[in-house]
Write a structure and sequence with these properties.
The structure is a single chain. With 252 residues, this protein is an alpha/beta fold. It has helices at residues 6-30, 33-37, 42-47, 53-89, 123-143, 173-181, 186-189, 191-194, 198-224, 233-241; strands at residues 92-93, 101-105, 108-115, 149-155, 169-172. It is elongated.
Length: 252
């Protein structure tokens, strides 16, 4: 086990946090109004008595962006966790499908799947996680039948009061960061470095966000509003929920 320097973490963040911010903005630029509208409940907007195009646009895009950012930042935190573990335990990005990190400690091979938070999956996704762990254990024991392999679902934030899941362990928040680094205070130490140039990067994001809101509001009004400016709810619901007839193949 090696000592972990907060200076090394700060340097990693400074060199790599730009990737997260660029993906945030790229995600905005790639958004299409009809794609977002197709994934949201139009009846909810009517029930909440939302009357303006901009309010609808902000409501649906903010929810979509929040979910997208959670995924992007979760992927980024996975990279940070692997970097930290490599510095302390010589851990490495796993080449086994479904496994993010491998490292050895006290004659045990740990295999980790890293998620952003504790409530990340439904029952079918949890089943797949277990299957991935079983497959990974079998793969690793092919070359060493006596290898002691322990599977961990690591979560970058949150809590889980019952970490022993039978087939694997689930470590969240403080416990996860301590497990991969040996430092019980790491979960608070990484907060400050993560704010590197946050204001400057967020200013860029806000500008792109404002442009997107304006563009989508105009597009929504042109498509789903009547000449008097009122929202055409029938047209909106039909776009979102109407049956689309399958195209007929042309006879040769």
């Amino acid at each position: 086990m090696k000592n972990l320097s907060i200076a090394d973490i700060s340097q990693y963040v400074e060199e790599n946090i730009d990737t997260f911010h660029k993906k945030r903005i790229a995600g905005l630029n790639d958004l299409k109004l009809k794609k977002v509208l197709g994934k949201k409940n139009p009846y909810l907007f009517k029930a909440k008595y939302i009357l303006t195009a901009q309010d609808i646009i902000k409501s649906l895009t903010d929810a979509f962006i929040s979910s997208q950012e959670e995924t992007i930042f979760g992927d980024w935190l996975e990279g940070l966790a692997i970097f930290i573990n490599n510095r302390v335990f010589n851990g490495r990005k796993s080449g086994i499908p479904g496994i993010d990190l491998e490292f050895d400690k006290d004659n045990i091979r740990y295999i980790l799947t890293i998620k952003s938070g504790p409530n990340w999956g439904n029952s079918s996704q949890i089943t797949k996680l277990k299957t991935d762990f079983k497959t990974a254990k079998k793969t690793l024991r092919t070359s060493n039948s006596k290898l002691n392999v322990v599977a961990i679902n690591g979560c970058c934030y949150g809590r889980d009061s019952k970490p022993d899941k039978g087939d694997y362990f689930k470590y969240c928040g403080q416990y996860f960061w301590e497990f991969i680094s040996g430092d019980p205070d790491l979960y608070t130490k990484i907060v400050e470095p993560l704010g590197h140039q946050a204001k400057e990067r967020n200013d860029d994001f806000i500008q792109s966000y404002a442009q997107m809101i304006n563009k989508f509001t105009k597009e929504f009004a042109d498509t789903f509003c009547a000449e008097n400016g009122a929202i055409d709810w029938n047209k909106l619901v039909q776009f979102n929920s109407a049956i689309i007839a399958p195209s007929k193949k042309k006879k040769k």
